[in-house]
Amino acid sequence: MATGRTDPQRRERILAATLDLIADEGVAGVSHRKIAVRAGVPLGSMTYHFSGIDELLREAFTGFVDQIVAAFDVRLGQADSLEEAREAVTDVIHTLSEGPRRDLILTQELYTLAARRPEYRQLCQTWMRRSRGILERHFDAVTARQVDALIEGLTLHRALDDTPLDRELTRLAVTRITTAA
């Protein structure tokens, strides 16, 4: 294995290994030793790159959130009309709920941390503000907040339900929320 000076991707590998370990064992299963083994780095690299496990978790989850928001932004950014925005939201719900279980697990692990710890709650609040900002390109602020909650709820329900809503029912739910009363 290369040394820190000749291994510029070491930090990124540690962050990726952290997320993979969380997805496999939950936050409770995370340790410097397990992450180092997974990342294929010396244990000392952990404290060289991160002041502690909390900094490592925050950075790993921040990177995860950034990836989710970027994908959300790309999909919603392609919408040029209300109907296209509704279809984009439907796509997001189905992509997230049918996508890698890893992402669903990481999201739920982050939410659990946020329920207990203010610094993770802040990360989730920032994520929600960013998502709503993207949605507000297509919907008013109140509707954007409702759509954001719908995305979260339907994604979770679709991912965990034995008989999840089909695409047409998802589209209907999105249309109902985004139609002015």
From TrEMBL:
Residues 8-68 form the HTH tetR-type domain. This is TetR family transcriptional regulator. PANTHER family: HTH-TYPE TRANSCRIPTIONAL REPRESSOR NEMR, TRANSCRIPTIONAL REGULATORY PROTEIN. The keyword Metal-binding does not apply. Keywords: DNA-binding, Transcription, Transcription regulation. It comes from the Bacteria. Signal peptide: none annotated. Residues 31-50 bind DNA.
